[in-house]
Amino acid sequence: DTGVSQDPRHKITKRGQNVTFRCDPISEHNRLYWYRQTLGQGPEFLTYFQNEAQLEKSRLLSDRFSAERPKGSFSTLEIQRTEQGDSAMYLCASSIQTGSNEKLFFGSGTQLSVL
Amino acid sequence: GESVGLHLPTLSVQEGDNSIINCAYSNSASDYFIWYKQESGKGPQFIIDIRSNMDKRQGQRVTVLLNKTVKHLSLQIAATQPGDSAVYFCAEKRGDKIIFGKGTRLHILP
Q1: Which residues pair with A51 in a beta bridge?
Q2: Residue B97: which of A36, A48, A105 has the nearest Cβ?
Q3: pLDDT tens digits, residue range B9-20?
Q4: Using CB atoms, which residue from A42, A43, A103 is nearest to B46?
């Protein structure tokens, strides 16, 4: 157990529905990342937060995706009008940066299946 | 998406032998590199990291080598054990974010 929790572990939804995932990072970590991973691929960067500020969003993140970290603690990732291509593992990670060094602690992910 | 490249998708190693997993990166400005291990059904787990001002760093049974001239990174695992079976990813810090490669699956032969 890394200390990073993600909920739910699995989500099955129909195309066109909205889904929301939650991530609870390690409490003293100020950075929180979202990645997406498909079978046989490495995690793809989606977005990250420093405290409550969203500092960068990948061009992979269409306007159907939105992420928040309202009080600099937990974060949510919402996908609106889901498409079959959104099916993937959504991973959350948190970290404390020490200079350039940054060790990410990952949750176990939310597996999304869009039917 | 953005990714760091890898040479081999699958590596099979006899139990007890040493494993070497290789990775090529493209951004010469990257100054921090990390290896992660991912077991089935879990998120990636940090193994070892290295700054660009170093060319070698050792941990417990693992060594990371960095060759900045050819932009190559390797992970050496000594005396490979069944518990080392996993997918291994190299990652680099590009700007202010961490970018992962596609991964190498390490398969341990009995």
Answers
A1: none
A2: A48
A3: 899 999 999 999
A4: A103
